[in-house]
Amino acid sequence: MQNEIVLEAPLTINWAINNSCNFACRHCYSRNDTHDELHRDMLFSCLEKVASAGVLSVNFGGGEPLMHPHLLEIASFARGLGLRVSMNSNGWLIDEQMAVALKTAGFTKVGISIDSHLPEIHDRFRGVPGSHARATAALGHLAAAGIATSISTVICHINNNTIEELVDLALHNGAGQLNFHNFKCSGLGLANKDELDLSPEEWKVFYRGALAAKAREKVLDISLDDPIIALLGARDTASMVKGSVCGKLSLNIKSNGDMTPCGFIPVVIGNIARDDLRTVWRESAVLDKMRNKKPTGKCSGCSKYEDCLGGCTARALALTGDMNSPDPHCWGSDESSN
Length: 338
What we know:
Elements: E1 12-16, H1 40-53, E2 57-61, H2 71-80, E3 84-89, H3 96-105, E4 107-113, H4 119-126, H5 131-144, E5 148-154, H6 163-172, E6 177-181, H7 188-191, H8 193-196, H9 200-216, E7 221-224, E8 250-253, E9 258-260, E10 270-271, H10 277-283, H11 285-291, H12 305-308, H13 313-320
Helix pairs in contact: 2-3, 3-5
């Protein structure tokens, strides 16, 4: 039985404040998003709505959020409302001066995307020569400015066999957290799926290695955001819920104010500029379906379902058209999935 408590509002908003980006990543979910962007004053108004609804933190993304001309003002305004402010960035625009400006604006944590310990592989994946060097330099600038850092790595065929090297990279660059993100199949991720995505068996091997590294590592926090690790008797210990956190702990807002369950589920459930956040959060039929998933197919006979809840909803929806379908990454065929 799924009997998790539904919060009055999301704890975190992942807010893609702009669509512009200086990179050309092979897996980008928002590359084809050409929606309008909310102007600064409207963003301020929407942030007030978010804070009054009881949201605790806002994580800015994009696009590349540092290409938004008013990012520092927006962050400072959000911080003034009592919101905890963080950001995901490719790191290209973060030099010593920018790092200090981000600290002054109220950023407490910045995640930098690095997808390989080898510069040439990362640069090719991200589409910009020199991007690896700029990303690692950004980590140093942020740390010097007093901002906590993390590394975000999208796991795919360019890096699934380099867990130890990625851990060493994070430790060498002083990152406090290493986030291993499961490959999504949205946007260019779907277009390049056959080349980049792992097979279910490869995911099993990867997660066994990643969980072993997580258990060994005492300094670095290794984060695994994929519900299917439940098949290996594990789960994200930082999460308050089972299955995906999307629509339960977090919500996504696009550059034009459209609200979606997560950045990888392109189903609009409202718009922050015109709709009441708490009402959408409480009454959305889409969110209700995500919070009360039903086992279908091989999930129906799996003993891990109550922890996994079918795996990543975004991936299931992208590849099958049904939120309740088993995660295509799942390697289990029955309850003996270990």
